[in-house]
């Protein structure tokens, strides 16, 4: 690295993009400029590079030389699961591999694993032990996984690998990744479409996290005239991105809006208008009259000249690769949103943007999506307002004798009165199952009344775990809160713990020591030296992170956060303990067999 020292800035000890390009071309004369640029990565061209960045690039280029010929080319485009064929996109594999290299190469826990050869199928092999997937989850949603719970070793046992993948899968579910009927064995086997799908969903959450009203308060002003403010509250980030694109299309004179990032971006005209609005001196509207290939070529060459080429390629634009287009748009927004002059929407109710409430809304979305119903919920209040999703949840959770689908007004053409009628059917069914429905009617759910929606969903979440618990008891008698408390105390006593559960509202639960003792009692490997006394807020937070990550590593999906425990959210705490009880009973039944 003597050459680096010669050209590095004396103060910052960094070099420019052009310098790193020349340095690597000199070091690897047999490599094409494209290969070297790929190794450098899709950073902004105005970025400064440190000596560790240069080492990262060298590692990637050396890895590509040392790889076997069959591994060096991305030739496999079909994944045969035995039941069906799943297409894999070469460019997506390359971009996901590059994302991992760029974000995790300097992680000390991954020194023996990275870099991934970006021009091979290496990613599927490197993800098998679950460590990369766990690290990716923490990039997408920091502090989701407690690093102390990840099994780190160059010689992991099959059991430890399975634990890591359980941890990755259940943590991914908790941040919004839709994972249905995927187990740790699918990752260990390197099932290509499952691994790539999981990686993409995690990366997507990270990319779209910038579409957040806390980071960019001006996003709240994208509310349309007369639109219910609750629609923006908890809006799916991808929908927020589409709102952002539509704002610039309208500003550019476009009368029609886009509703997706696939077919609506196919001819590249909407992308050109967006780029023109943000960079009028660089992207001319005359491009709209060009052929598709010319449009793509000129967009890419201009972005490269502007040192803004990231995630996309000419091939991605021509073939309408929506995942890569979404990734590029997120990058574009991070550089320039163009919302600086947007007037503040009148009468915004700031109370709607409570962090605690938005966290709870996300948790309910993620729980519903984990059930495997047909619908995908991204905006809780908007997606639930017509009653059709709630009827699917009820049929999944309560399994009523009379199916609701035959009585439900179905999309796409449902008038507001029919939506209210659907919601009234939902409430009527819930009352038949002894749900507490006080001062809630179909119109409350249609209007996205926060208190009403949360009340219904909390009872459904609790009913779900109670149904599971009841099915695991020999008598099939309905389990209640007192049964759960008795089980917890008996389990703690049998394990020699001095902890005891008085009620789910017990303030001492925030220390999480009782939860950790329960986890050990049901078979989790708990490191006693890791547990803190729980005498301060920081110690309680540390124990809560540890307990939640241990639970997920045990293969138990849960949808509460450390903050829920610290804030004493007793309803979610009761569901958590009930979930541990169900896991214990399930294991006991398996052992009997």
Shape: globular
- Major sheet size, sense and barrel closure: 2 strands, antiparallel
Low-confidence stretches: 66-73, 75-85
Q: How do the SSEs run, as a string of H and E?
A: HHHHHEEHHHHHHHHHHHHHHHHHHHHHHH
Strand tally: 2
Please give the alpha-carbon distance between the first and last residues: 62 Å
Which class do the helix and strand fractions yield? Answer: mainly alpha
Give the helix tally.
28
Widest β-sheet, arrangement of strands: 1-2
How big a fraction of the residues is strand?
under 5%
Helix content: 40-55%
- Mean model confidence by pLDDT: 87
Cα-atom Rg, whole angstroms?
26 Å
Name the features:
two-stranded antiparallel ribbon, mainly alpha, 593 residues, single chain
Explain this structure.
The chain is mainly alpha-helical. It is 54% helix and 1% strand. It contains 28 helices and 2 strands. It has a two-stranded antiparallel ribbon. Helix 8 packs parallel to helix 11.
Q: How would you sum up this structure in a few lines?
A:
By secondary structure, the protein is mostly helical.
